[in-house]
Design goal:
Elements: H1 2-21, H2 27-46, E1 58-64, E2 69-74, E3 82-84, E4 89-93, E5 103-108, E6 120-128, E7 131-139, E8 149-153, E9 159-161, E10 173-176, E11 181-186
Parallel strand pairs: 1-11
Antiparallel strand pairs: 1-4, 2-3, 2-5, 5-6, 6-7, 7-10, 8-9, 8-11
Helix pairs in contact: 1-2
């Protein structure tokens, strides 16, 4: 599983650097094939095994849209910004913040959006014994309006926002903490 994670990371980095150099860069095709292969293998394996060494399950955010977005992991402290390029992936081991309890993965479409009042998509989770509780919400607007958002888990409930806005009803779901939870941001307008 760790090999698949490394393959995807390498492919994502190659794609990023190749696009900076121009779409005709010779490594872009290799990177795209490596990424496709690792995604296929990862999808087949992720339903039975947690992603990350040591068997610790993860919270993952996948950017299947055409533009980058920016993510901060927030508990009692705010983590560093992470640019998630198109076809990119962010993941962190599921963990509990002793002071805040839960973790909020806050996403904006602008590089400094967390600090400038930009619309934020919030993928939050809390570990309670062998259960992970998770939800999806927004603040200051809906950054992914018109884009499909899905939160899935290896072993529990899912959340679907077909048009990037809250569809109504409770969005708090749960799953076994031994499996991964995924937010996927799909392309759109």
């Amino acid at each position: 599983m760790m090999v698949l994670s490394v393959c995807r990371s390498v492919a994502t980095c190659l794609i990023y650097f190749c696009t900076k150099a121009g779409s005709a860069h010779p490594l872009i095709h290799f990177a795209m094939h490596l990424l496709s292969l690792s995604l296929a293998l990862l999808a087949a394996a992720s339903s039975t095994t947690a992603l990350v060494a040591g068997g610790v399950a993860s919270a993952l955010v996948s950017n299947d849209s055409k533009k980058p977005f920016y993510l901060w992991s927030v508990g009692s402290i705010i983590g560093p910004p992470n640019e998630i390029a198109p076809r990119g992936l962010y993941y962190e081991p599921l963990h509990r913040d002793d002071k805040a309890g839960g973790i909020a993965l806050k996403i904006t479409k602008t590089a400094n959006g967390l600090y400038t009042g930009q619309p934020q998509q919030i993928f939050a989770y809390t570990l309670v014994n062998d259960t992970v509780w998770f939800d999806l919400s927004t603040v200051f607007g809906e950054p992914f309006i018109g884009q499909r958002l899905e939160v899935t888990s290896d072993s529990g409930d899912q959340i679907v926002w077909p048009k990037g806005s809250h569809p109504g009803g409770s969005q708090v779901k749960s799953a076994s903490s031994s499996g991964n939870i995924w937010l996927t941001v799909f392309g759109g307008v």
